[in-house]
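--- STAGE predict ---
source: upstream dedup step, 1 unique chain passed
mode: sequence only
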Amino acid sequence: METILCPIDFSPASQNALHYAAQLSRQVSARLVLFHNIYEPADTVFVTTGGASYAEPIRDFDCRQAQQLKLNNLKAKLERENGDIGTDYEIRLAYGLAKETIPQIAQEIHADLIIMSKEQVEGLEIILIDSVTEAVIKQAYCPVLIIPHKAHFKSLQKIVFATDLQGEPFTDVSYVLQLAAQFKAEILFLHILPDDLPSTQDKAQANLEQLQKRLPYDKVSFHTAVNPHIAAGISRFTRRHKGDMLVMAYHR
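--- STAGE serialize ---
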């Protein structure tokens, strides 16, 4: 992992995500890029002689300067906290919609990971329905790490990887294996069953055994749990096993 992108809107939740990103970047010796999106509303709509409409964007120079100063101050604070450890910090600003600019910036800087906040996350459904986070997950080419507003960084000991056994992309599994290896963390593969019928359990067990044979990592365990509500089942398992990170692969 060489580059981490952390979008910042200066809210307490995003600053908590930044704190997490800063500590993780130090652990893995990655460059950390702080990014702030400036929302760009449209001015009066004009109509050309041909009938096409367009709008001139409003760009407040004073606002940009103020946001730039905030980013500079955050960068300076991180550098002071970092001491002699050689982590590189950069800042980026862009105009537009956050759900569009975040994936664009991630691609421009070749980010290996996006770390972003989500206000008051109470469940997986909140993350994955109608949000900037959902849009970024769909559009970003790299993994997205969502930090709940009360979560704090600690060395990874347990990573829960929730799988539907429909075939995770090799790159997703490989990325998690590399991350786990850096922390010598255990990976708990989890599959949620809709019922406890023997045929359902046997099929899941067979698929998990096939997955196990393909993994070049020894600190791995495989689990099933019965819950008709997948998100609730994943959340309950992760809490019960005190997971430090939850991983899910996004299927388009």
